[in-house]
Amino acid sequence: MAYYVMPAPGVEAAIDPGSNLPGLSDAGRSDARDLLSIPSPLMSACTGPAAAPQWAAEATTCNLGGSAGALFAQLLATLAQAQCLLSDRGAYPPDTLSPLPEYDFVVVGAGSAGSAVAARLSENADWRVLLLEAGGDPPPTSDIPGLFPSLARTEVDWSCLTEVNSRVCQLQPGGRCACPRGKVLVDWSYLTEVNSRVCQLQPGGRCACPRGKVLGGSSSINGMAYFRGSPQDYDSWAALGNRGWSYREVLPFFKKLETFDGEELQRRPQTAALHGCDGPIQVSRTQRLDPAVDALDSAAEELGYKLVEDFSTEPNIGFGQAYASIKNGSRWSTARGYLMPAKERADLHVVKFALVTKVLIESTKKIAYGVQFLKQGKMHEVRATKEIILSAGAVNTPQLLMHSGIGPKAHLEGIGIPVVADLKVGYNLQDHVTYVGMYFTRKPLLKMVPEEGIFQYLMNRTGPLSTTGITSYVGFIRTDAASREAPGIAEADRSNHPDIQLFFEMVPSGTGDRVAKIFNYEEEAMDPLVKLIARNDAIIPMTALVAPRSRGRIRLRSADPMQPPLIDSGYLEDPRDLENLLSGVSFAYRMGSTNAMRRAGFAVEDYPLEACSHRRRLTPDYWRCAAPYVVSPAFHPVGTAKMGPSGDVDAVVDARLRVHGVRNLRVADASVMPLIVRCNTNVPTIMIGEKCAHMVAQDWGH
After folding, report:
1. What is the pTM of this model?
2. SS3 385
3. Catalytic residue from among 614, 636, 694, 702
4. What is the distance between the alpha carbons of residues 679 and 681, in angstroms, rounded to a whole number?
5. Which of 46, 52, 489, 689 is deepest in the core (most CB within 10 A)?
6. Is the Cα torsion angle 410, 414, 419, 425 positive or negative in sign?
């Protein structure tokens, strides 16, 4: 879901290369800044043991004297090596500045699915593969699990390079000068259109909709939760006419993408047949550091729910600590899992900061043969002799299809785009929505100081920054308001098909302003939250509706591909969705009111809203009033290029992900999901990429 980790105040600033390092005297601060911005020649050597910078070696001569000086030098040298390992950006594929005019396959978008598609296709050395990505390499902080909330709207340098010039820059990698060209975001920073039913505390009443604009896509900025979903999710897809997409048929691709924690498999050998052991994505259970998790365990059991060890192999109804795409304290995105190992392949070219504006289609025969893309202000064209695979995500893929003439005829003609194929592109938009207006508060416990957590992470990859904290604790329930519409699912199986997911976030006392900023609240909405947790720690039970009935739509604003798409979210448009969500909020209240939570010192409080001051707090009446203000999306958009058979008038692609009516063009990302999975969408999206690559290889005789 929309996970929000709240590291202690000072942690993000201390990791930021432009900030002072807490705990050092003023005299040492310039060295601390040097430590966190080691020059690129040293960074390029990070693949092996790195020597400490000269200033660290000379620290023994500082006025600390004796053993203190030696200890300080050792600390700086250790931190230098730790930062070097953290910041080895050279591990990603290089930017191809002069791509070939023609490739066998062109993949658009190096996100969760696109990285998998391109890496798998390039395993065949006979195929030339081009991967086009609108962003660049992930920033160093993206590797740190505990800092992921800071990645939304994060600026990183364009990091362009000059051509080789023997007169300059010969100490820089390849003899090419770094050429900073301002800042870019690793997040597309989209906003939805105004919807009076949600997000009314956000500026202009428009919901933030972060999507990854970086190698790895949203897998480089998300909360790293590892969920496949229920078997029923995929059986429903198959029941809609999508052959090959039942859970039994997609399970091999889930296994193929993962390397599951070996110690966990040894501890629970009965699950080995359901997990993979040599895939690109590392999966592990993070450290359980917060004692509040024990209280949540007891509260769940008090309410009659079982504790689930592995949501991928057991019925999902229940509570427990989820696995995460983390290894040794570092994020394992698709950029790291798929693209890093492929960086030396001669048949895979990656072009970064390349904004694809159009798929080139021969209009008479309706055959896709290439793409146009913009890089550094210049328009380029590249051809594909076999196929083009769009993996730009559930917002950008429909945008690109429509700019290419594939979409609703009336809409395209209305903005002057010639129609190639009249398909329901952009329809069927689905997302999970989350109520974030309830807090379990308690008096603060003794906390680790920020400096200690920073040093633990940099030196050992342990401590709070190596995890997503209590965020990894989740629950799935089925309420009485759950939809009974479930294609292909027997009545007996519906009891294990959740409609509500709960996930939790610990918020330290005194950080209300930071929480409000993460939630994108307007300035005037911050004060009540600041007061609420001024002297108390809080757990936010984020209650998400994972089986929405409402549907939204993506449209174009104009024929200009540089304009962001218009996102009509449709959240809570079906009134049954609000009733369903409020049933989940009522459950969260009961959970916070259990004896187990009271024994742990927690009390339940509502976010104090002036607009709802006439309603009694902690009642369904108050929650209904609060919903338009404290309900927001979970950032899991799917469905905008729906998969379905030719007889399905709403379908955009068939079961082999081929665009209906257009040859040599496929879609492989979350936009093809006909129904949203009832869990976080990242891992299912990677699975779609794996399955697409397999089908492409089959169709081309490999």
Report:
1. 0.86
2. strand
3. 636
4. 6
5. 689
6. negative
Q: Other CB atoms closer than 10 Å to residue 125's CB: what's the count?
A: 10
* Residue appearing with tokens 């930062």: 83
DSSP-based three-state secondary structure for 86: helix
Q: Is 582 left (phi over 0), alpha (psi -120 to 50) or beta?
A: alpha
How far apart are the C-alpha atoms of 205 and 207, rounded to whole Å? Answer: 7
Residue 16 has what pLDDT?
A: 44
Q: Determine whether 26 is exposed, middle or buried from the number of CB atoms within 10 Å of its CB (0-12, 13-18, 19+).
A: exposed
CATH among 3.40.800.10, 3.30.70.330, 3.50.50.60, 3.40.50.300 for 93-164+171-192+334-429+638-699: 3.50.50.60
The predicted-structure confidence for 260-300, as pLDDT tens digits, reads as follows 998 888 898 888 999 999 999 999 988 887 889 999 999 99
Is residue 636 flagged as an active site residue?
yes
Nearby residues of 538 by Cβ (< 8 Å), 6 or more positions away: 439, 440, 441, 442, 506, 507, 509, 532, 605
Average pLDDT of the segment spanning 8-12: 48
What is the tens place of the pLDDT at every residue in 344-382? 999 999 999 999 999 999 989 999 999 999 999 999 999
Q: Max CA-CA distance within the chain?
A: 82
Supply the DSSP symbol for 485.
Answer: -
User: Over pLDDT 70: what percentage of the chain?
Assistant: 80
> What pLDDT score does 485 carry?
66
If you count DSSP H runs as helices and E runs as strands, how many of each does the chain have, helices first? 20, 31
Those residues with Cβ within 8 angstroms of residue 159's Cβ, 6 or more apart along the chain or in another chain:
95, 136, 137, 178, 180
Q: Which CATH superfamily is domain 277-332+431-632 in?
A: Glucose Oxidase, domain 3 (3.30.560.10)
CATH 3.50.50.60 occupies which residues in the chain? 93-164+171-192+334-429+638-699
350 neighbors 322 (Cβ within 8 angstroms): no
CATH 3.30.560.10 domain residues, the chain: 277-332+431-632
| pLDDT tens by residue, 523-580 | 888 888 899 999 899 999 999 999 999 999 999 999 999 999 999 999 999 999 999 9
